# Entry
Amino acid sequence: MRILVVSTPVGALGSGRGGGVELTACTLVAGLLERGHAVTVLAADGSVLPASCAAAALWTCNGSSQPSAQHQDRHAPITMPADGLLQAFWRRVLLEAPAAGFDVVLNLAYDWLPFWLTPVAPLPVYHLVSMGSVGDAMDRAIAELAAWDQRRLAFHTGAQAADFDLVEEPVLLGNGFDLSAYGFCAEPEPLLGWAGRVAPEKGLEDAAAAAAQLGLPLAVWGLVEDQAYAAAVEASVPEGILQWRGFLPTAQLQAELGRCRALLNTPKWNEAYGNVVVEALACGVPVVAYRRGGPGELVQPGLTGLLVEPDDVAALAAAAAQVGSIDRRACRQWVEAHASRAVLAERVEAWLVAGLGV
Ligand code: HBI
# Structure
């Protein structure tokens, strides 16, 4: 098929501002290319595609980034900057995509406009929903689209899909990763890890508190999206507990992440999937996570890590002290079976083909 993949309007691919959807976009594009599809990516000016996506065409637009949906008030009206990137994206889709001969448009943005346009678009638009419920406007847009034709929607996990008012069993795609980019590490250091956008919904403060209880350092990888929040977490634990490692490209991230005894995953929101959970497992690092959202479905207790009651820091620390019993190779094997790039691409293709009836 000829597929147009529309990226997130919160930032350029490769900037880290898009969070998990950047990784998903690149893996999904590379996987579809491997399966012989022709793929064009529509993304913000300044976007960079990895070598694995070299065969994809890149269309870019300029414009102001969309404000992060999860940081708006739940009841906030739909907002778009007057010179918004989102509008620029969808002006190009509506004007150029039909003549360019695409069979399908795959939207990765968690924004009202593409969902609202779908029933009146001149070509089929499909949506991989990247988050759980974060506001009324998107809840409504997703419910209305589900009522119109739920085949147009796919989610990462059941926990995420359960947030929305759907009319039939949801299509669940999980996620996928280029596993050749992650090296297996058998012998960890006395180090705990945490990775993700440094923002309140990710719950870093709990991981910091657990590390402090254990007297182990906590390496923190990710874009510091909320400086005040990061400073407050820093102040909440003794000197030397937190090691701020910044947002690293995958090659550097996996080299450091693999050295961790465990990854702590502490979502405060209904995390749709939990890319960092799988990235850690791919390096052989067991995951100790709250039984919440996608991570609550991904971690296989006793096999690839441990799950604890959400927000229970003492339980988090106790579980982190027990991960020595987990076979690190089993962590890598689980990802190879359930979250490879090929697995995701197969699922995406099956979803689109089923919906298009081709
Ligand atoms: N917010 N408005 C908006 N649009 C997005 O596409 C979006 C977002 N916030 C976060 C986000 N995408 C990605 O980090 C997802 O992977 C969660």
